[in-house]
Amino acid sequence: MRLPGKIFTSVIVIAAVFLFAPVAAKAASFYFSPANSAFIQGCTSEVVVMIDTAGSNSNAADIEISYNPAQVSIIDTDPGLAGIQVGTGNAYQAYVYNSASGGIIRVAAGSFLGDLNGTATFLRIPFQSVGATAATTFTINFTGAGDTLDSNIAETSTSDDLLTSVTNGSYTFSAGSCIADTTAPNITFPYPGNGATGVPASANLTVNITDGASGVDIDTVVVTFNGVPYTNGDPGFSFSGTPGSYTITIDPIGGVPQGVASTVSVQADDLAGNSASRIITFNVPSSPQPTPVPTDKVPPVIDPQDPTDGAQIEIDTDISIILTDDNSGIDLGSIILILNGTEYRFNSPQVDYSGDPMSYTLILTPQDMLPDDQYSYLTIFVKDKSGNAAIKTITFGPDFSELPDTSCECTVTPTPTGGVTTTPVPTQVVYNDELTRQYEQLNMALPGSLRGSGLPAIGALLLAIVSGMAMLSLLFVPNLLIFLFARGHKNPWGVIYHEGTAEPVAGASVMLKKGDGEAALGESTTDYYGRYEFDQPAGDYMLEIRKNGYGDKDLMIKHEINSQIDYVNLVPDTTGPLLMLWAVVKKVVRFMQKENLAIAIVGLSLALVSHMFAATLLSTLLVGYYTLWASVSSIMRFAKA
């Protein structure tokens, strides 16, 4: 029996874009870390492969690494699965293909939500030397920039191959004793050192962390400066080097304070799990004096410049505010601006500030245009360096003839226990009609940052996301990644297919033996079309077929050169609780696909209700989305009738 080809049009389009799109001028790379090192013969060692997107966004990557199985053996990191798997990293959300066999390591991974931008760990390779091996190498398959048949790093927006360079691994082995690493990393501070003085406000902090045994785990490093933690991936945190020796640079937000002592603490683990920590202090005043009891009891002054309370403004207006404090000065890090439920800080991208602690001018450019048919509310909170706080709310919009006075000025002063006491001026919001009041009370169930959109709009958005995922058939994403990254079999011995649906089964493991109990002659993994192949002469063989979610299958075959292709069916295994749950999920998806018109009508109703009360960008997009969906579904249903 021969199977008809069943390839989704969307898969063909995505694959064509990835394989034939023009190559962008990018400089992403794979590299071994460490690239060179010495290990003990027969002991378990580990190296990592790092990925660096060089400033581009990536949502998928695959790699092929060659090694000599006569020199090293790969240690399986997941004995519960068939075959040998290396350790996965944290670069992407899902690792969909992982195999180490016959001198080749192949790994493919991707992310469905969020992209990788920067440096991360792609995979870890635990291994041991074989016999008296003195040296070995790991070689990344890379034939040139833009070649999608070797290792690849895919750009999110264009699917271009970003990979332009690789660094292979070269290692030596010597005789010795396999002693577990029980020594913690060593932490030093090149600049500033412990007790240093005169460190300027613009200085960067430098930390060295070394570990000559298993190496430093960079993802466990936490550098805390004056109470603010910095970790790998945070703004202000950068590093260079290898796990044997990392140099970490911290660019503190707000700079190094002057006239007061600063503290740096570092916490780090090595790859064997040993922890180390160290704390230093610098810029300590030469003659410390007892901390005086604060005499500043006056809160900062909040002075909205444009708009002022009750002003009428344009929807694309920037907001200007002046904050002053003539005593201890403004605490810049305490500033909070809340505009229509959206929170901004002094270091938010939408906020520019200038001045000094005695007087700061803030310019807020809202991330969304202000509504032109309802009021906007801005709450400003700030503290001075003595702990006194002030809060003020102003209201502005197109028409304020019936707008209540919602301004509130509060004084917050420190208590003896370090807390604060707030005395607000109470206000009461007056609604124009009962229907609006009920709508606003309904929205109180949402967090403050989402109330401006409205509960119906949030419900319509969630319904759009869930139904959209069903309509896109995300249940086939793992097979899609196999289609994009797995090698195709051009001289297949046979095809594995689903007994119930007659569709090809991708990712199945096929072991070739001369007979039951015999040693394996080779292993093949089915490609997207369910094909497998071996490099063996004609003869009688035994196949052992394994695939998660299916029953095991063993059979004898007679292979002849240029013979008819064998078709082998696999029976799904639905006895486990997870597989039963997966079947229920598929039924739910099919139901949502079948009832798409009803879902579109429900979503359109929610979006219209939200748009009627608050015509935001989100509600406008949702109305358009569901209108288009309902129209297309109606036309298709009419055509079928």
Description:
- The chain folds into four domains: 9-174, Immunoglobulin-like (Sandwich); 186-282, Immunoglobulin-like; 301-430, Immunoglobulin-like, CATH 2.60.40; 475-574, Immunoglobulin-like (Sandwich).
- A hairpin with a 2-residue loop joins β18 and β19 (245-250).
- It is α+β, with helices and mostly antiparallel strands and 641 residues long.
- The strands form eight sheets. Strands 2, 4, 7, 8, 10, 11 and 13 form a seven-stranded mixed β-sheet that branches. Strands 1, 3, 5, 6, 9 and 12 form a six-stranded mixed β-sheet that branches. Strands 25-24-28-29-30-31 form a six-stranded antiparallel β-sheet, with no helix packed on it.
- The model is unreliable at 1-24 and 402-432 (pLDDT under 50).
- Total domains: 4
What is the CATH fold-level name of the largest domain? Immunoglobulin-like
User: Strand fraction band?
Assistant: 35-45%
Share of helical residues: 10-25%
Number of helices: 7
Structural class given helices, strands, pairing?
A: alpha+beta
Q: Name the average pLDDT.
A: 81
Distance from N terminus to C terminus (CA atoms, Å) equals 35 Å
Task: Sum up the overall morphology in one term.
Answer: flat
CATH architecture of the largest domain: Sandwich
Number of strands: 38
Task: State the low-pLDDT regions, or none.
Answer: 1-24, 402-432
Q: CATH first level of the largest domain: which class? A: Mainly Beta
Instruction: Tell me about the largest β-sheet.
Output: 7 strands, mixed
Radius of gyration: 32 Å
